[in-house]
Amino acid sequence: MGDHALLILLSVASLSLLPGAMPLQPSQAWSLFKLRQLLGDPPVLGTWRNYTDFCYGGDYKTASAFVECYEDSVTQLHIMGEPGARPLPTTFSIDAFFTTLSRLPDLKVLTLTNLGLWGPLPGGKISRLQKLEIVNVSSNYLYGELPRGLSQLGSLQTLVADHNMLGGKLPGWLKDMPLLAVLSLRNNTLQGTLPESLKDMPSLRSLVLASNNLSGNLPELSNLQVIDMANNALGPKFPRLGRKVASVVLAGNKFSDGLPADMLASCYLLERLDVSGNRFVGPFPAALLSLPSMEYLSIAGNRFTGRLSGNASCGENLRFVDLSSNLLTGSLPGCLLAAPGKTVLFSANCLSTGDDSQSQHPSPFCRNQALAVGIVPEQGRKKSGAKAGVVAVIVLVGALVVSAAVVFVVRKARLPKARPARRLVEHASSAYPSNLLADARYISQTVKLGALGIPAYRSFSLVELEAATDNFQVSSLMGQDAHGQMYRGRLSNGTPVTIRSLKVNKSQSFTRHIEMISKLRHRHLVSALGHCFQYNLDDSTVTHLYLVFEYVHNGNLRGRISQGTEGRKLSWGQRISTAIGVAKGIQFLHGGIIPGLFANNLKITNILMDQNQVPKIGSYNIPILSETMKSEGGAGSKYPPDRICRVPNGDKIDMYDFGVILLEVISGRPISSLYEVEMMKEQLQSALTAQGPSKRSNLVDPAVSKACSDDSMRTVMEICLRCLAKEPTQRPSVEDVLWNLQFAAQVQDDSRSSEESPLSPSQPHAQSAHD
Ligand SMILES: *[C@@H]1O[C@H](CO)[C@@H](O)[C@H](O)[C@H]1NC(C)=O
Ligand SMILES: *[C@@H]1O[C@H](CO)[C@@H](O)[C@H](O)[C@H]1NC(C)=O
Ligand SMILES: *[C@@H]1O[C@H](CO)[C@@H](O)[C@H](O)[C@H]1NC(C)=O
Ligand SMILES: *[C@@H]1O[C@H](CO)[C@@H](O)[C@H](O)[C@H]1NC(C)=O
Ligand SMILES: *[C@@H]1O[C@H](CO)[C@@H](O)[C@H](O)[C@H]1NC(C)=O
Prior knowledge:
It is a single chain. The protein is an alpha/beta fold. Among the domains are: 1-163, Alpha-Beta Horseshoe (Leucine-rich repeat, LRR (right-handed beta-alpha superhelix)), CATH 3.80.10; 455-551, Phosphorylase Kinase, domain 1 (2-Layer Sandwich), CATH 3.30.200; 557-771, Transferase(Phosphotransferase) domain 1 (Transferase(Phosphotransferase), domain 1), CATH 1.10.510.10. 29% of the residues lie in helices and 16% in strands. It has 22 helices and 30 strands. The strands form six sheets. Strands 1-2-3-5-7-9-11-13-15-16-18-20-22 form a 13-stranded mixed β-sheet, with no helix packed on it. A hairpin with a 5-residue loop joins strand 29 and strand 30. One 2-acetamido-2-deoxy-beta-D-glucopyranose (NAG) is lined by residues 163-165, 187. Residues 472-743 form the Protein kinase domain.
């Protein structure tokens, strides 16, 4: 602690005056000034003066224009002009612009939006930017086809070029970009059908091609999590989707075949489905309402038929439902009426409802319309023959006129409404790290961030951290390990935080780590809030790095499972939803950030619970920690530092650790040795093959076993065993785990016996406490 106190004497003021460890290479600074000139000295770059030291902070940085460096080279360039920028003058040359950009050879992240750039993208020049990972060139005037040169960008993960005038067909060579995860070309002029090769892109997670002029059927899209194809001319067949899909927007197309109820019923991760404004006919699968993750469902403006039943059930996450302008009969499910905070629209159907504000057609209307589009209602199916045929034809003529009018009116009425689809973009605030966050691979995860309510990531001053910890008083010290100390503190606005102090080696460089740490924010992680560097006054090297995290203070998961210290143990249903939360955290660590974090040494005691009982993964494999270890010659990490992200089967190591956590969740007994794991595995194995449920329920924590459905128990046990497979390649993927847990939650829910209320405290169980 002694040298600590000494180093902390440095004030922030002196820090910001220190020269950067390395100034930007002069040739790169020149390139940046040249770019400014080619852009016609836009106001957004008014702070770039000829003495700007681009790599070392300073006042030239604004939220709309900034540069990040790694050592003496630019790795990120962000220039965001004002919305509505006019095209640059005819003297502008896109070739010259990209030639100049290619003099920044280490560029990884590039944002050039609302700058009036015009012309065809020059493929040859772009292909020289070999390190590009994330590109956003939205809201310019780029035209022509996507150039083949793009396919040579082997590291490209995100390409966003919304609101341009790019045309032609979506090229088949996109499949040659092995890492491409996010492709967004909203509001361009793409035409024709989509290439079949889209199904061969294993990394692709998010495909946004809304508001183009695409037609034909979609290829199989089984890897995708986010699909937005709104406002094209696609159809008639609904695409094949995978089980991992989270958001599907197909509004305003020409889909007309029915919805594949069986396929959609297995989409347990589906949060948003919007098929409004198409030509769908056939029965509306009411089971969509009860999908466990579903939040937003719109089928408005189609010809869905079917009799709704008042007792149909709804998923608990559902908050927006639009059934308007279809041919539905029966009564509105009670679960849609009851809840406040839910938006439910259902006008212009033939439902019987007590709500006059959403007017309905008389029921013969729906019947006739259904006949007109060739759907014979159940009861009428047997009456075939010439007579029915004549009736149908007569009705058809009349109904077509009516339906054309209805569709027209409905469309007009719907247009001005703000569609909640905007939400995806809104949460990406303009603060520095959020720009990166908005690009994160799994856009749907970022959606959740907004609801998190955690403050934006930022850099802290040492003074702030001193104030927060009472000058790093011993009383604030929470613990200490080979990496450094951990303190508890409270920011001036009252936010409680955990501060990790890391002593660092002179030769280390942090920029790329900070970039990644700033992305470690998720509902199910103890999230990063910021960092602070401490410099040595003599040679201006970094001596300490402080990482600021959320402080989660409601105990760990073991305390709610095997040690019922608070006298409250989680019910079976709560255990499953907690496990789902942990799995979602793991999914984010693996796939929600780039590069993913693997081999996180997950333990039940590191799963922290917040005041709302939301589980958060409390420690994970931050690369900077493993490097600090190396430089200190410390032991502890099982894997070679620096390559830690590439541990073979690193993801499967986490699945094993998750399996051990599940074992404890199931059995309610603390599991702390490999021996215990092996014992439990054998017991699970034989319980799973046993005939009746009794052998299984004997293995489950007696505090909850009475209220478990056998299907639910069996599903959790099976996935637990698979996670614990000896051979890493035999272990399931995190998506597979999530799917099964969601399933287990669903069957438990369906069969929930009256004995278990989700909030009822169960008896405290005396258990030996050891870790
Ligand atoms: C910086 O710019 C000013 C005017 O904008 C000019 O007079 C001066 O020579 C420039 N300095 C260098 C080092 O280029
Ligand atoms: C579509 O892009 C054009 C520019 O190409 C822009 O002017 C227009 O506002 C965009 N439309 C929407 C709905 O965003
Ligand atoms: C859309 O594509 C079709 C052909 O597929 C063409 O006839 C139509 O003019 C296009 N519309 C626009 C607005 O480009
Ligand atoms: C709903 O109630 C009807 C009788 O009114 C019954 O036939 C049907 O099985 C019930 N459905 C569900 C899901 O409970
Ligand atoms: C791309 O840039 C625009 C304008 O700065 C921004 O609104 C949008 O969120 C960015 N898109 C992504 C996916 O980062």
